[in-house]
Amino acid sequence: MDKMRLLTPGPTPLPEEVRLTLAMDMVHHRKPGFTALLGEIQKDLQWLFETSQPVISLASSGSGAMTAAVTNLFKKGDQVLIIEGGKFGERWGNIASTYGIDTGIISVPWGKPITIGHIETALRQYPKVKGILVQASETSTGVLHPIKEIAEYLREKDILLVVDGISAVGISPLPMDKWGIDCLLTGSQKGLMLPPGLSFISLSERAWKRVEENRPREFYFNLLGERDKILKNSQTLFTPPINLLMGLHTCLGLFRQQGMENVFRRQWALTQMVRTAATAMGLTLLAEDHYTWGLTSIKLPEGVDGQAVLSCCAERYGIILAGGQDSLKGRIVRFGHMGHVDYGDVLAGIMALMHSIAACDGEVKTDNVLEQAMAAYEKASDEGYPEDFA
Amino acid sequence: MDKMRLLTPGPTPLPEEVRLTLAMDMVHHRKPGFTALLGEIQKDLQWLFETSQPVISLASSGSGAMTAAVTNLFKKGDQVLIIEGGKFGERWGNIASTYGIDTGIISVPWGKPITIGHIETALRQYPKVKGILVQASETSTGVLHPIKEIAEYLREKDILLVVDGISAVGISPLPMDKWGIDCLLTGSQKGLMLPPGLSFISLSERAWKRVEENRPREFYFNLLGERDKILKNSQTLFTPPINLLMGLHTCLGLFRQQGMENVFRRQWALTQMVRTAATAMGLTLLAEDHYTWGLTSIKLPEGVDGQAVLSCCAERYGIILAGGQDSLKGRIVRFGHMGHVDYGDVLAGIMALMHSIAACDGEVKTDNVLEQAMAAYEKASDEGYPEDFA
Fold it and tell me: How many structural domains does chain A have?
């Protein structure tokens, strides 16, 4: 009769207000009431993305928005650079090559961030690059790439910065206009505390010019058509996911009430909490300085079977964590603490992880771990996140 | 304080069981529990489509599934025939020409069905046709095209029959394998009594061969990739809309309990009810013999402002109906009675329509209309639908 606690990097638990909204009966999407709701959602999404440009909602998973970004911004034969430091970096590469785009891959070891030096070197090798495709947060490793620095470096160059913000928007700061991001996209099931099924994408002025020049042949992911609908009367090209949008309105209302600085502060504090716990347990963190907020990747002690640890957490403690992917499979635990998760859930998650590693014969310290974690949480809540993220 | 009643051809009102399922908290989509649910859903969808082939769920609106059908089944330069008797027939044409497919258009007057004669003539003009794209139900007019006859006619020809079943699947019979449909697709917000955001598509064996030969360059609408995931372990390529799929499982459970014959019988009886009411009011039906179940298009008396009628229905009676599109704008009312709608809702809808037309100075008979409608409903419920639909 224990509760299940979903501590994965998406989907995340949903606030009760959102769940009740999702249960509401249908309204018609082309009638004035829903059009007015879409208008409010548009304002809220621009506030969330920190942009003056329209934010387009698509009925798709986040990979749909990634596909839309590639097919609208680039043509067959265009050259792009992919920052590949994990599974989602690889996905950028797969999408781009599906559409005949010439992709230069900058590989960084899984767990490490990209540096400006890497990019400088790659640009010498690929001089005709029209865009750089990167994750803000690489969900497969829990690394936060330095988007602000990359944007600054690219500002004077005719190269579009395309950022997958799927596990970053609503979790850590990513002000689109201020930093100079050319394309920012996200999904509904991470920071936005909604089920999956909606994705969002916004383009800078110069990115829109590129789309207008390209005249992409896209029927479903037709960003110019969607923008026209928004500007004309806040509508969508195709039937939108009505109840997810109603839930989004509720979620963005909760964000408005709290203010994004407080949303980010909480995510930051929970991140400090889990990192402190892992270190106190004597475990190693995969990402050192540049780490995702809302997700912590923790290396398991040598010889411990990661799948057995996850199963023990789930079956004995009702704690659902994610494992490593590909080369990291069985070797790390990805501890999610994004969305509607609080310190109490995280305490339960830390305890479950600690006891499950021990049950799988892994070496793990247990002294005072929860106390140290809670102290780190309270300290980080009081102090807030460092200024250079703002 | 009156209730709002949604009587449009999608979205439709949702059963309470479905709404409560939609409100459930998230589970993780890659864990064994959800994989098992996807396995059950797969069996139910094959039962619903009456096919032995996998039915793929996509995170998209129905137009996404239409796009997937076109880009997977046909290549640039292929010739297809489009049955265009309304807005959604036009959509087939728009999708096909977006992707450089050579489209022959068979125009039929809005409100009329296609005939085999039309198709025979067109095939003489376009001898290299690789597929015929048609709506089972053309939602903009309420016409039911004769899919069974078309399928029979095409059986011995190397021409794929691609059927948009968006406002037909779960509403009127459309047995994919028995009739010989090569591609059947639908959306979640019509017969399936769910919010929009999910679409479904299934291909015949010969259609799959075509996709294998084409090797389409599709990242998001990658049907071969989705089929592999289903066959391997009931999973999806991308993060699926978790709560819509949970709601789908509930809905298909309701269908299983009732049996599809009874679901269809109810839709048939409600259709007879509304058609009888319209005739009793002295109004003309747009579609004569070949009419959609679950949606009735009714011509308004000359000179009556259709928008004013709809507004009166909505504002005075809380009845939400749909209007005509394009050339039919302002001239017809589309009265939806699909999904979770019963005779009581339809009685309210008929009454609202009758009084609103009168309020807009339209000529309309009111004598005994509801009694005649109810008698038609009860008779059709008892007798069931004609055998040639089975």
Answer: 2
Whose tokens are 């199963």? That residue is: A311
Which residue carries 């050579």 as its tokens?
Answer: B102
Residue B227 labelled as part of a binding site: no
Range of the domain at A245: 16-257
Looking at B242, B257, B272, which one is the last position of a domain? B257
Which amino acid belongs to residue A207?
A: A
Task: Say whether A95 and B19 touch across the interface (CB within 8 A).
Answer: no
Name which of A12, A94, A243 is nearest B26 (Cβ-Cβ).
A12
- From CA A293, how far away is CA A46, in angstroms rounded? 22
pLDDT at B167 over 80: yes
Please list every residue in chain A whose beta carbon sits closer than 8 Å to the beta carbon of residue B63. Answer: 219-220, 237-239
Inside any domain, residue A88 = yes
Residue B239 shares a structural domain with residue B156: yes
Q: Taking CB atoms and an 8 Å cutoff, what residues of chain A touch B314?
A: 31
B121 belongs to a structural domain: yes
How far apart CA A239 and CA A250 sit, in angstroms, is 20
Is B118 part of a structural domain of the chain?
yes
B265 and B316 housed in the same domain: yes
Cα Rg of chain B (Å, integer):
21
Query: With contacts defined as CB-CB under 8 Å, which chain B residues touch A323?
Result: none
Q: Domain end: A234, A257, A280, which one?
A: A257
**Distance of alpha carbon A304 from alpha carbon A309, whole angstroms:** 8
Selecting from B13, B98, B240 the residue whose C-beta is nearest the C-beta of A196 gives: B240
- In a shared domain, residues B247 and B267: no
The answer to whether the CB atoms of A11 and B4 lie below 8 A apart is: no
The angle subtended at Cα A246 by Cα A245 and Cα A249, nearest 5°, is 85
**The pLDDT of residue B248:** 98
The CATH number linked to A350 is 3.90.1150.10
Asked whether residue A389 carries a pLDDT value surpassing 90, the answer given is no
Q: Any idea what the CATH number is for the domain that residue A44 is in?
A: 3.40.640.10
Q: Are A321 and A8 in contact (CB under 8 A)?
A: yes
Q: Which among A194, A238, A320, A270 has a CA at the least distance from the CA of A29?
A: A238
Band of pLDDT at residue B48, cut at 50, 70 and 90 = very high
Q: Burial level of B343, CB count in 10 A (0-12/13-18/19+)?
A: middle
Determine the distance in angstroms separating the CA of B19 from the nearest CA of chain A, rounded to an integer. 5
Phi, psi of A67 (to 5 degrees): -60, -45
The reported pLDDT for the residue numbered A216 is 95
Question: Within this chain, do residues A232 and A265 fall inside the same structural domain, yes or no?
Answer: no
Residue A134 and residue A164 in contact, taking contact as beta carbons nearer than 8 Å: yes
Same domain, A281 and A267: yes
Q: Specify whether B194 is located in the same domain as B313.
A: no
| A253 and A323 assigned to the same domain | no
Query: Which chain B residue has its CA at the smallest distance from A10's CA?
Result: B28
In Å, how far from its chain's centre is CA B32?
33
Mean pLDDT of B270-288: 98
Burial B364-390 (b: 16+ CB within 10 A, else e): beeeebbebbbebbeebbeeebeeeee
* Mean confidence (pLDDT) of chain A: 97
Neighboring chain A residues of B217 at a CB cutoff of 8 Å: 98-100
